[in-house]
Amino acid sequence: MKGKKLILGVTGGIAAYKICDLASRLVKLGADLHVVMTEKAREFVAPLTFQALTGNPVWLDEFSLNGELTIPHVQLGEEADLLIIAPATANTIGKLANGIADNLVSSIALVHNKNILIAPAMNSNMYSHPAVQANLQTLKSRGVKIVEPGRGRLACGITGSGRLAEVGTIIAEIEELLFVPKNL
Fold first, then answer.
1. What is the mean pLDDT of residues 1-19?
2. 115-120 sheet: strands from edge to edge
3. Is 20 noted as a catalytic residue in this protein?
4. Please, are residues 110 and 76 in contact by the beta-carbon 8 Å criterion?
5. Distance between CA atoms of 133 and 32, rounded to whole angstroms?
6. What confidence category does residue 151 fall into, taking pLDDT thresholds of 50, 70 and 90?
7. Which of 71, 134, 156, 172 is catalytic?
8. 68 CB contacts (<8 Å, ≥6 apart)?
9. Which burial class, exposed, middle or buried, applies to 168 when counting CB atoms under 10 A from its CB (0-12, 13-18, 19+)?
């Protein structure tokens, strides 16, 4: 992943703690990784954790002054080779499907005109809800890569679908988007 600039949008779900491992592994693979966190994500993981793992300042909102960028959502969105949103909550998926840009993650998604990968993670009932499924279909129809969640014990105590995909699976999907030529 050397030479690849990746944006990792972390949203507010309990699976955010697993994204620390994802960030660490992407950096070890040579990615220039920049983390953007929603307000709710900061309830689960501190920005300092991602700063330590990536060596880059963490972006918290459109008004962050983390260096030279004057319009972070535009510059980050245009410069990145890939936007990864993990965990992708039902709320964020709905925003992305409907073009709502009310935080830095969703704003970058509207600007970014290259590959987007999302890894949903939520309660089984939420994941299977027709509105969430319709939003996922909308995103797929627009070329967004969805890393399907796994099945297992969820934070709510039940066992079912909605568990964040394994980090290795997410990395394999990232590598495919970045390095596998598309059949034309």
1. 94
2. 32-37, 5-10, 82-88, 115-120, 145-146
3. no
4. no
5. 32
6. confident
7. 156
8. none
9. exposed
Tokens of 47: 């920005």
According to the model, what pLDDT value does residue 76 have? 77
**Measured between alpha carbons, how far is 184 from 181 in angstroms, rounded to an integer?**
9
Q: Residue 159 has what pLDDT?
A: 79
End-to-end CA distance of the chain: 24
Mean pLDDT, the chain, whole residue set: 90
Neighbouring C-beta atoms of residue 24, cutoff 10 Å: 17
CB–CB of 36/104 below 8 Å? yes
